[in-house]
Amino acid sequence: MQNLSNVASEQRQRIWHESDRGRTLGGKASGLVRACLAGFDVPDFVAIPVGEIALMSPDNLGPQVEHFLTARRHRSAGESFAVRSSMAIEDQPGESAAGLGHTELNVIGRWNLFVAFQRVAASFHADTVQNYVCQMGGAACRMEGTVVLQDMVTPTLSGVLFTCDPFTGDPSRIHIDAVCGPCKRVVDGFATIQAVVDRLTNVTTAEGPSAKALTPEHVMKLTDLIDRHDARIGLRYDIEFAFLDGLTPIVLQSRPVTTPSRQHS
């Protein structure tokens, strides 16, 4: 993982303050920029406008990607990357579009990166995406957004933090779905740890075949992450997290909760 340079920080602040930032970057990239600017540790990334993917070739992946790769040439030749969709309709407060955009993980090598970019960009135009837009009350349209290239990480523990109860919206009950290893299995619905943290009593109940891997220290760090996220970004977000070698979680994604919350007395 690489720290943001001053240049990158300035570029991202400029992009983030554009009035159409959500449509320009798409939901995932907007969330990553927001987390970076709020001071959270995020695997380094670059966002490429989806319209520029068609201009790529295996020998020239475009200035942003080439600069990103050049900065990593001192690393292992087998370093892997994630290539993700970041559509304008994804990860928004009123609509999630979860699972519609394509994702390629553990991509190694220039040719494989080129193929991954093409596949992810193609998913912007899939019938399932247009059908989703129509179901949400919109008219079929050209999808805007970016394709995100991001450093892959190798976590010991990862998952999704639901900062309020996903069924009732109660912010006093945190839900954690996690696995030992990469987060994709959680996103795909195969969590091996399900935990609930009652913030009023500080009692944690955890179940699942890997439940013991989620230690009290992990839970303490995750509740601290939520407190900082609430203070710097806002309430009611779902946070994808990962622990690498230590007990400091990094943020993989951060997106607004889209399920309606209920009022609590």
Structure notes:
With 265 residues, this protein is α+β, with helices and mostly antiparallel strands. The chain folds into two domains: 6-151, Dna Ligase, domain 1, CATH 3.30.1490.20; 157-256, ATP-grasp fold, B domain (D-amino Acid Aminotransferase, Chain A, domain 1, 2-Layer Sandwich). Helix content is 30%, strand content 24%. The protein has eight helices and ten strands. The chain has helices spanning 6-16, 21-25, 27-37, 63-70, 110-123, 127-135, 184-187, 216-232; strands spanning 45-49, 81-87, 103-107, 145-151, 157-162, 173-179, 193-198, 203-207, 237-243, 249-256. The strands form two sheets. It has a six-stranded antiparallel beta sheet. A four-stranded antiparallel beta sheet has the order 1-4-2-3, with helices on both faces. Strand 9 (237-243) and strand 10 (249-256) form a beta hairpin. Helix 1 (6-16) packs across helix 3. The termini are far apart. Mean pLDDT is 82; it is low at 1-8, 13-20 and 260-265.
Number of strands: 10
Instruction: Please state the average pLDDT score.
Output: 82
Helical fraction equals 25-40%
Summing up helix and strand content along with how strands pair, one would put the structural category as alpha+beta
**Cα separation of the termini:** 43 Å
Q: Any guess at the CATH architecture of the largest domain?
A: 2-Layer Sandwich
Q: How are the strands of the largest sheet arranged?
A: 8-7-6-5-9-10
Number of domains: 2
- CATH superfamily membership of the largest domain, which one? ATP-grasp fold, A domain
Shape: globular
As a whole number of angstroms, the C-alpha radius of gyration is: 19 Å
CATH fold node name of the largest domain: Dna Ligase, domain 1
Estimate what percentage of residues fall within beta strands: 15-25%
CATH class of the largest domain: Alpha Beta
**In this structure, how is the largest beta sheet organized?**
6 strands, antiparallel
Q: In DSSP terms, counting alpha (H) and pi (I) runs of 4 or more, how many helices?
A: 8
Q: Low-confidence spans: pLDDT under 50, at least 5 residues?
A: 1-8, 13-20, 260-265
**Element-by-element helix/strand order:** HHHEHEEHHEEEHEEHEE
